[in-house]
Automatic annotation (TrEMBL):
Family the UniProt entry places it in: Belongs to the enoyl-CoA hydratase/isomerase family.
InterPro entries membership: HotDog_dom_sf, MaoC-like_dom
Gene3D superfamilies for this protein: Hotdog Thioesterase
Family matches, as CDD domains: R_hydratase_like
Protein name: Putative beta-hydroxyacyl-[acyl-carrier-protein] dehydratase subunit
SUPFAM superfamilies: Thioesterase/thiol ester dehydrase-isomerase
Organism of origin: Gordonia effusa NBRC 100432
Residues of the MaoC-like domain: 15-102
Secretion signal, residue range per the UniProt entry: none
Length: 136
């Protein structure tokens, strides 16, 4: 078992307007604040904002793959949304993800958006609970 400080996987994902639009169609949330700069500004946002669950879902997809490769399965997760991911048309956002095996039955995943000022956390933390495959 890895020590708490050991990173077990990292990833980088691009979130652009098209990905946000497709997620909204599938998820049933086509609110214009997610894709239209004018609608976002009218709602008091500086730019369109990606769906929070899109961001969490990206991280959970990576966690699911890692768990499967390690004969584990996810039994649950929790997180707190701490900052939006702004997606300006023509300027996709870059997410950096990193997972640590903090306990035998848990991954702690950091998710940050990269900006000109550096990386800023958007979820804190995303905790994924694990069990050996078949014991859930």
């Amino acid at each position: 078992m890895s020590e708490q400080t050991d990173v077990v996987w990292t990833a980088e994902e691009i979130v652009d307007t098209e990905r946000v639009r497709r997620y909204g169609l599938v998820g049933g949330d086509s609110n214009a604040i997610h894709t239209d700069p004018e609608a976002a500004k009218a709602a008091g946002l500086p730019a369109p904002v990606a769906h929070g669950m899109l961001t969490a879902g990206i991280a959970l997809g990576h966690a699911t793959r890692w768990a499967s490769e390690n004969d584990l399965e996810m039994t649950g997760y929790d997180t707190r949304f701490v900052a939006p991911v702004y997606v300006i048309p023509g300027e996709p956002a870059t997410l950096q993800l990193s997972a640590k095996r903090s306990k035998p039955d848990r991954l702690d995943i950091s998710v940050a958006v990269v900006t000109d000022e550096g990386a800023k956390a958007v979820l804190r933390p995303l905790r994924v609970y694990l069990a050996p495959r078949g014991e859930q």
